[in-house]
Amino acid sequence: DVKVTQSSRYLVKRTGEKVFLECVQDMDHENMFWYRQDPGLGLRLIYFSYDVKMKEKGDIPEGYSVSREKKERFSLILESASTNQTSMYLCASSHRETQYFGPGTRLLVL
Amino acid sequence: AQSVTQLDSHVSVSEGTPVLLRCNYSSSYSPSLFWYVQHPNKGLQLLLKYTSAATLVKGINGFEAEFKKSETSFHLTKPSAHMSDAAEYFCVVSIYGNNRLAFGKGNQVVVIP
Fold first, then answer.
1. Do the Cβ atoms of B106 and A42 come within 8 Å?
2. pLDDT per residue over B21-63, tens digit each?
3. What 8-state DSSP symbol labels residue B83?
4. Nearest to A4 by CA among A103, A89, A88, A102
5. How far, in Å, CA of B111 to CA of B113, rounded?
6. A15 vs chain B: nearest CA distance in angstroms?
7. A71 SS3 class
């Protein structure tokens, strides 16, 4: 079974803090993705990576950056958290088209 | 561009009755199609996928979906709803050439005892 884990299930941060969300997959997948999910807006792609040290912007990259130093790990960074980044964050990995998701991190920015 | 339409954002079914969730897609090529389920405060779990083999696809938990190219549809069905089926369901289509996916808006399913 594919396993995708995320470092935190729930996170509370203050406005202006730097926030790191970590994602690890155990299936040697080339591709990894970060989404955010908001009521009424569905899932929106923030960034994805198709190889170590490679990244591509998704549909809503503003305010976020990513890091992929090892194949199994993909980090999402909020450089200066803002209240409009309160959301559910989902990580996924894939070999080809089929994506496997982690359990999600619910982030609250106060 | 590939896109997915899921009508009926909220669906109520009685326990033991059939479930039908409709999905229509738009694609200029033969896509891969997926259904995912999301239980409250959880990630998305793959229910089933169509990747150009058999048009009737069986998934986990008794769900199945039929790919109909002429109708550009990929409806999800289950003969008998269970309380544990209460969740949000997403129809998803692959985007040609880059391993990205296009997600539908989701169907929130409520199961009435």
1. yes
2. 999 999 878 889 999 999 998 899 999 999 877 889 999 999 9
3. G
4. A102
5. 6
6. 23
7. coil
Q: Residues 6 or more apart from A84 whose CB is under 8 A from it?
A: none
Nearest to B93 by CA among B70, B64, B72, B62: B72
- A55 lies within 8 A of chain B by CB: no
φ, ψ dihedrals at B83, nearest 5°: -55, -35
Among B41, B94, B101, B105, the residue to mutate for chain A (most A Cβ within 10 A): B101
Q: Which residue has the tokens 């980090």?
A: A75
Strand, coil or helix: what is B61? helix
Per-residue pLDDT of A54-70, as tens digits, reads 999 999 999 999 999 99
Mean pLDDT of B93-97: 82
> Is A39 within 8 Å of chain B by CB?
no
- Chain A residues with beta carbon closer than 8 angstroms to that of B45: 101
Q: What is the CA radius of gyration of chain A?
A: 13
CA distance B10 to chain A (A): 12
